[in-house]
Amino acid sequence: MESSDNDELCLSAETAAALQEFLLEKAEKQKQTDDVEENWQFSQFWYTDNTADILSNECIRALPEGGSIACLSCPTIFDRLLQKEAIKTQLIKAKLFEFDRRFEGKYPDYFEFYDFWKPKDIRPELRNTFDFIVADPPSLNEDTLVRYVQAIRLLNRSQETVKILICTGAILADLVKRLLGCHECKFQPEHRSKLGNEFRCYVNYDAKGLQ
């Protein structure tokens, strides 16, 4: 009888160890699923944590309660926004406009499919509803930037009061100024992957958090 009891204890310990291993593996897989990797075919290059923090803080700082933020092709900024108290309590609202549907699974309540080549496909109920628009076009060329400008004009609540923050290459500085009335900030965004092109932040308002 004593031997049987010992066998049961060993079996219970082995079962507990196996269960613990299974739960650890499950947690690791979940973490891997949550951490969406860059897809270079989409020209995705994630910001460093510091850059994402600074840019998301600026989005919140620039808006009063009741404001709304549209994030165009910048999921790392959006991820940080969701951690802000103003977003959690819905004092400020935010939506992610993104082509990569992996983020639809990660942010089902905030995701809006967005093909930047087709800005006119933006749903009518989302037009003219955003007070702050932050964008990170995937390519550094005029055609791409023009499409984003079209989307920004469709999404903003008011051409006179909308605040715009756009992160793109230094080579597009003149075009950004001409199309959006934005000026370059002192703060320079950094990416996890070291890129050859110089990136800059441009705004159409007094961005105190980026000086």
UniProtKB/TrEMBL annotation:
Q: Name one GO cellular component term.
A: cytoplasm
In short, the EC number is 2.1.1.-
Primary localisation category: cytoplasm
A GO BP annotation: methylation
Which cell locations does it reside in? Cytoplasm
Q: Name one Pfam family in it.
A: N6-adenineMlase
The record's keywords, sorted A to Z, are: Cytoplasm, Methyltransferase, Transferase
Q: Which GO terms describe its molecular function?
A: protein-lysine N-methyltransferase activity
Instruction: Tell me the domain of life.
Output: Eukaryota
Q: Which InterPro entries match?
A: Efm5/EEF1AKMT1, Mlase_EEF1AKMT1/ZCCHC4
Supply the PANTHER family for this chain: EEF1A LYSINE METHYLTRANSFERASE 1
Kindly give the HAMAP family that the UniProt entry links to this protein: Methyltr_EFM5 (MF_03187)
> What family does this chain come from, according to its entry?
Belongs to the class I-like SAM-binding methyltransferase superfamily. EFM5 family.
Which purpose does this protein serve, as stated in its record? Answer: S-adenosyl-L-methionine-dependent protein-lysine N-methyltransferase that methylates elongation factor 1-alpha.
Q: What is this protein called?
A: Protein-lysine N-methyltransferase AB6A40_009795
Q: Which organism is it from?
A: Gnathostoma spinigerum
